[in-house]
Design goal:
By secondary structure, the protein is mainly alpha-helical. The chain has four helices and no strands. Helices cover 38% and strands 0% of the residues.
Length: 77
């Protein structure tokens, strides 16, 4: 008999902390949502809700534009 394991649904950490605005100044928080190639982690992996994923994406793009975080982690040859 095959047992099916249900994965627990990830809970949005911003909703848990009741955060309305994701600040682009907080580079340590934003780096958690960027993978090693410099791409933004998708919602299905990070567990964010749609509202906070949109805010997070905007904050990451603003931080990149202001050179707070790099566009990519390293240069690939």
């Amino acid at each position: 008999m095959a047992e099916f394991h249900r994965k627990r649904k990830r809970v949005c950490r911003f909703c848990e902390d009741k955060v309305r605005h994701v600040e682009y100044h907080n580079d340590r928080l934003l780096k958690r949502f960027i993978n090693e190639r410099g791409k933004i982690v998708p919602r299905r992996i990070s567990g964010n809700c749609a509202f906070h994923q949109r805010r997070l994406t905007t904050a990451i793009k603003r931080a990149r534009h202001l050179a707070i975080i790099p566009f990519s982690s390293e240069i690939f040859r």
